[in-house]
Every structure is written in C-alpha cells, then in structure tokens.
From TrEMBL:
Cited PANTHER family: THIOREDOXIN REDUCTASE 1-RELATED-RELATED (PTHR48105)
Highest taxon, organism lineage: Bacteria
Protein name: Thioredoxin reductase
FAD/NAD(P)-binding domain segment(s): 11-281
Amino acid sequence: MANELKITEEFDIAIVGCGPAGLAAAINGAIRKKKIGIFGTDFCSPKLHHAPHIDNYLGLPELTGDELRQRFLAHVQKMGLKINDNKVTGVYPSEGGFTLQSRDKFYQAKAVIIATGVNTVKPIEQELDYLGRGVSYCATCDGPLYKGKRVIVLAYNREGLEEANFLAEIAAEVILVSQVKERDAAGIHLDERIKQIKGKPVGILGEMWSTGVKLEDQELKADGIFIIRDSVLPDQLVPGLNVSNQGIEVDRHCATNIPGIFAAGDCTGMPYQLSKATGEGQVAALSAVKYLDELKNKAKKELANWDRGRR
C-alpha cells in the first residue's frame, strides 16, 4: 500500500492518542532514540483536564487534573516532540510496517501504539454491517466515489461539517444531519447547496448495500453515508485487531494479536486509573522498541547470510 501512496512522514513508532498513556509512550520511545509520531486531538486528554483533583499519582499529590496535564505536555515539549492533530481513521499493514491514514494524508510507521482512551462511541444500528458497503468514516477518502450522487453526512463534530462542505463540491445532493452543538459549530459556514435535516440517527437502512439512514421520525434515502465522529472503534481503526467487551486485548507486554501493534491505557480495559495508563504507556513503548530492535537484528543476520552465500 505504501508504495502506491504519497507518504507525508515516516516514523519508527506512531502513537495514536495523546492522553497519559500515549504521552508516556512517546517520552519513553524518544528516550530510546526512536523517531516518534504522536497523533491526537487539538486538546489532549479532556478527561484529565476536567478532574478537580488528583490524589493518587505517586509523588505529585494535591494537583488538579489540568495542572498534571500541563506537566505532561510540558515534558513532551521539552523532549522536542510535537502532537499531530490529524485524526487517524485507519491503520493498515504495508511494506516495512504500517500505513496510517488521516483524511487525505498517509504516514508510515514500523510499529504502532494505540492509546485512544475509553471509547464511548456506540455505533447506530447496522452501521458496522454496512461499513465499506455504502457507509464510510472519511469523506475525503471515499467522497469521489459519489460524484453526481446523493449522500448523507451524519456529523457529530466540526470535522463533520467541514466534510459536508467538501462533499457539496462533488455530490449532486448532500443531506446533513448534524448532532454538533451550536458553540462547536461557530465559524463554519455551510455550503448553500447542503440540505439540513434535524433528527437523531438510529440506524442504517439497506439490503446488500446501504440505501439510507433511519431517524427517530423519518427515513432518508441516499447512495452513500458518511459518519464523522471524534473517534473510531478500535477494531475498525485497525482491521483484524482482537477486541473484547472490556477493550483491546493485550498481553503483559501490551502487545496485541497483530505483531508490531501495541495498546496502552484505558483502551485496554479496566481499571481506568492514571498510573495504570502511564505505566502501560511505558511498557508499550519498551515493547515496541524491543520489537524494532529484533527486526533490525534479524535483517542484519539475513543480510550476512546472503553475503556469505555469494562468496
């Protein structure tokens, strides 16, 4: 896949998520001299920000959640690391590791750490059944497939409104069903060609292919449906990832069932504790570094054997 795409940047380790687990992983990976890419939102760890006080983080008592959050971010900045606010919508195996897709940009990484926190996303009825069959999470990626057709955008954030504007330049008709609060939509001017309909989406309609969206009080028909949220379910973010009702399944080394992909923090399940998140972030980073070093050593041995075979 990577050979066919224009890669924006390459990393040794890409970290998806910038909460305590992701930042701890980034720091420990950087200390081991690996090139780190951190992908997160424009406001890292709102959960920690809203905590009125933190009493159980060893050595740092009587801090507010935001005070501790600011210390985490300052540590990351001191390490020379930057947070990329492009949302990752897919992680796919490719030559040399993995390709991370973020709208119309692609990044390459030899190893990936998932640290997306607790996922509160609840897919609407039959959403996952029709994913890839008329339902998409990325308008920039799949919008061109619906040139001259009718599409529905289910927007749960500002990005959803922006994606609706993008689709208005391609599709014959764009129907927007927005769940975005007015204050969060400030400053965005919707294309006059977009038709807005009020309502709460409850399910996807279809047979072999999706045909529309069911709202609480009506049904809407369309050729394509775009669902734009802040986060993507882990097993949709990484196809083939083992996920239980507790979270992403990992071993004691924070390794998932996919070699080269690790997970840390609340996304791996309870307990949802700050120390557990930062500890797993460190373990995931050390495991990723070990994984990369083993790959490097294996490649050296194979090269040496090949060289001896030529003599």
